[in-house]
Amino acid sequence: MASFSLPPINDNPDGGWGPSSSNLPAQFKFKDIPYAPYSKSDKLGRFADWNDISGDNRQNVGVASAQATARGSGPGNRGRRDGQQAFGSGTASAFAYFHAEDESSFSLVDTKTNAARRGGPLGRGRGAGRGGAASRGGGQRGGRGGFTGGRGGNNAQRGGRRGWRDWEKNNRARESSVAISPDWSMLEEVEFHRLAKLRLEVDEPEDLDSYGRLFAYEKSYDRITTKTEKPLQLVDRIKYNTTTSDDPVIQELASRDTATVYTTDVILSVLMCAPRSVYPWDIVIVREGNKLFFDKRDGGPFDTVTVNENAADPPQDATTVNPNNPNEKVAVPETPSINTATSLSLEATYINQNFGFQSVIETPPPPPVDFAKPNPFYGPDETEPLASCGYRYRVFDLGITEDEDVRICVRTEVDAYTPGQGNPRAGQGLVTIRALNEFDSRALGAGGAPDWRAKLDSQRGAVVATEMKNNSCKLAKWTVQSVLAGAELLKIGFISRVNPRDNTRHVILSTTSTRPMDFAAQLNVSLANGWGIVRTVTDMCMKQPEGKYVLVKDPNKPVIRLYAVPMNAFTGEDEDDEGAFDGEEPDSAVA
Fold first, then answer.
1. CA angle 503, 504, 510 (to 5 degrees)
2. With CB atoms counted within 10 Å of each terminal CB, which end of the chain scores lower, N or C?
3. Where is this region: RNA gate (predicted)?
4. CA gyration radius for the chain?
């Protein structure tokens, strides 16, 4: 009969559980074993699992685990089914055994099925809990519905909702605002995320002089509702948008060495709000001695107003395929559609100009207010009446230290004054007037905007919030222009088409009034950040020798680049009209 002997038992004299460390061989004393971090919130699994997971049982457990994953149950779910993996079992362990030479012992274990990860056939509807039922409200919340995600893998994983930076992934490439010549040399390149970190506190400006004539704002426009809408009229007035170098007042101030940098509020606001911009733009910079002149090109992006620039799916211009190169798409110069980016921009410009002309009182009382000097751009041979506009030339100190002399002279504009709010000549009661426009809430590029006629009176906050999202850059520029001009109020009109299919007739649905600094806080506009960007660009240009330069915003990336260009660049363009806007209504086929 065979004998049976018990194996040696290493008793723990300390009374603890398990063998004593003094009785263990050297290779089992956990030497050089890395520390495995844990948290109090970690859940412990089973100490031992006696279930047989070999063969058919392993397949059954895997199916149960996949079903539990598809139902949304997980380690943190109290309703965990049997077979669901314990907490942390799928993570890498410092105590795992690896055999370097035996590749057959290595296997990739992935218990997540494709249906759970990608959503399966119904993934667009379920959307991982974020899009909800094919984003049933997607058409009303900024997307084009559930099947928007079906056009791209990334969007499908989001359940049909477009992400907040999806405008950077737009498949349709935009063209640059200015043709980059191969003769130009790129000097600097700055990303927007670097610009967003800049900051410079600037004191109150110094007023140099004021020009022009202001009319009083018509307060009855503040009482307009969707039920008492007022038609937008075509008002024949002249308003100038002359560039910096052609301004005779700035030329005189520069001859007296009044400042280091000279520009206008329109150009400066684009630079101060650059991190918000999506569409391309360019600024022509001329250095003469120790002076910098920031100019715009006539007919460039500074002469028009953008529409839904910051929307998740902004309006696009129609494109076609180049027959010589099927992979290349070129823009169609003329299109009958009235909802393209170019058509909407012209329409918005027409609306802004005429709303400002219409919403002032030209017949006393109250009387118009003349500034210290007349309009510097209105010649004696002009016959058409001038629009209500006042120019205030102001100097801001951009010096970081007291010994540093970096000053910027800005031509700012105000559109009207509020009667009874003080002396407008002293900067009291000044008003800037702008207009937001609705084209078609169901059209592509509408950005999920609600129907203004249905929501503007009862849910104005929702309408304003949508416009703040879709037109963040435009509203920020308007606010900065009002702050630079020292305006006390910013009037914003809500103007819609009479018929969504006709872009030639419009009605005023409502008007809102806000203080520029308060609106800047709502928009999260940091003036200190804007001044930091201006000072950085100034330092970049002052490091260069005398000459002409162009600051270009990349059409498809959040980047600005500084190019050195010949002195005769942009001189062949038509500059006869000097940027005057005659207030004519846009052609229906173009605008």
1. 80
2. N
3. 301-315
4. 33
Residue 296 has pLDDT above 90, yes or no: yes
Count Cα atoms within 13 angstroms, Cβ side, for 276: 28
As given in the structure block, the two tokens for residue 164 are: 């907040």
Instruction: Give the Cα separation of 419 and 516 in Å (integer).
Output: 19
Q: Which amino acid is at 52?
A: D
Q: Distances in Å between the alpha carbon of 82 and those of 50, 66, 89, 110, 562?
A: 13, 12, 14, 18, 63
What proportion of the chain, given as a percentage, has pLDDT over 70? 66
**pTM above the 0.85 mark?**
no
Instruction: State the virtual CA torsion across 522, 524, 528, 534 in degrees, nearest 10.
Output: -120
Q: Whose CA is closest to 341, among 297, 302, 305?
A: 305
Provide the Cα torsion 117, 122, 125, 126; round to 10°: -40
Taken in order 269, 274, 277, 282, is the CA torsion positive or negative?
positive
For residue 140, what is the enclosing H or E element?
none
Torsion of CA 568, 573, 575, 581, to 10 degrees: -140
d(CA 345, CA 339): 9
Are 503 and 586 in contact by the 8 Å Cβ rule? The answer is yes
Mean pLDDT of 214-220: 94
Residue 45 Cα to chain centre, angstroms: 47
State phi, psi for 127 to the nearest 5 degrees.
Answer: 60, 30
Sign, Cα dihedral of 175, 176, 178, 179? negative
The residues spanned by each domain of the chain are 185-565
- Any bridge partners for residue 432, and if so which? 490
Residue 497 pLDDT level (bands cut at 50, 70, 90): very high
What secondary structure, in 3-state letters, does 200-240 show? CCCCCCEEEEEEEEECEECHHHHHCCHHHCEECCCCCCEEC
Asked whether 278 and 553 are in contact (CB, 8 A), the reply is no
Question: Mean pLDDT lowest for which of 164-173, 249-258, 511-520?
Answer: 164-173
- String of DSSP letters for 493-509: EEEEEEETTEEEEEEEE
* Cis peptide upstream of residue 314 (ω within 30 degrees of 0): no
Question: What span, in angstroms and rounded, lies between the C-alpha atoms of 56 and 531?
Answer: 70
What is each CA distance from 258 to 261, 290, 530, 531, in whole angstroms?
A: 9, 12, 22, 19
Length of the chain: 591
Q: How many CB atoms lie within 10 A of CB 168?
A: 11
Cβ atoms of 432 and 479 closer than 8 Å: no
- The mean pLDDT of 386-414, rounded to a whole number, is 93
Give the CA count within 13 Å in the CB-facing half-sphere of 38. 12
Q: Is the pLDDT of residue 373 over 90?
A: yes
Instruction: Give the number of other Cβ atoms within 10 Å of residue 7's Cβ.
Output: 4
Rounded Cα distance between 415 and 430, Å, is 8
Token couple for 487? 């305006």
Predicted confidence band at 41 (pLDDT cuts at 50, 70, 90)? low
Tell me whether the omega of the peptide bond preceding residue 7 falls within 30 degrees of 0, making it cis.
Answer: no
